[in-house]
Amino acid sequence: MRKIIMDVDTGTDDAIAIMAAVMAPQIEVAALCTVHGNTSVSNTTKNTLRAAFAAGREDIPVYPGAAGPMVKDLSEVRRIPVPEPVLGGTAEVDGVTVSMNPDLLPLPDPSCAPQATPAPLYYLEFLRTTTEKVTIVATGALTNLGLALSLDPMLAEKIEELVIMGGGVKKSNITASAEANFYKDPEAAAIVLQCGAPITLCTLDATHSCALTESHERRLRAIGNTAAVFTANDVRARRESYARFQPLERAGTAPIHDALCIAYLIDPTVLTCVEDAACMVECSEGIGDGRLQVDTRSFHAAPNVRLVTQADPDKMCDILAEVFSGRGGVTG
Hints:
This protein has a single domain (2-324), classed as Alpha-Beta Complex (Inosine-uridine Nucleoside N-ribohydrolase, Chain A). It is 35% helix and 18% strand. It has helices at 12-23, 41-54, 119-129, 143-151, 180-184, 186-193, 204-209, 214-223, 226-245, 259-266, 313-324; strands at residues 2-8, 27-34, 62-63, 90-93, 96-99, 134-138, 159-165, 199-202, 271-277, 279-281, 292-294, 305-311. The longest helix has 20 residues, at 226-245. 53% of the residues are buried.
């Protein structure tokens, strides 16, 4: 069983990742840390509590994290611009409002409360004292980890693997150069990618390549429980939003970005194109702020990430369907 900590900016795709991780028998979720991103950290914390509760686990501790980036917002030039409509949470499609990332998810509130310890301090306390390595799955801005690793770089020695949804090679979304998670705190992303822990980086290229279809949506909806129906509804909202605002190569599909990280931990064969790569993140006031830079020179630096650029959409759906139906995920 893989022991993990999830670091999330919980909108709908983070919620799906949380529910899949909580329900997968191959995974033990030790803690959930929240961060700014899809909405305020107050809302991402509430959404995280709701997602864990919806999956049957309100006992997993939730640690609220950073409300903003490490340094980026100190520069007026580098502050985040108005989001594109497809990233903004709602879209009008044929007169119907569909919600990709509402501020608060339509899930019931649990009776439990978040922890008092801030997420970066939790990382310091837990990783300094744990006797076993842990996997960290990060699907939002990397501010919490960036702060913790800045205070104690030796924490990286306690990380078995960092599984990150972030960056893009040929894909971007929030700007012409950058993927949203890296753009929202480039300094933190740069620190994390250079920390020395084993890193599997699920890029925007990979999540777009395994976008789900209407057929996948119907299969998930038929399972009938809260997690599966929530996922099917999100696939529906995303398919309509992407078709309207950001058409994909495969028409009528919807990337559920963050869930790919958990699908990979359940069944690594969901990833179909992975290469060792030397990667950095640009931190600047220019058009490249937050851009994932892959060193393609023949004399490139030593690889620091396993770079994922393609994944299998049918296997992605198989994994989610198996986990949500209680059969524990596929293995081959």
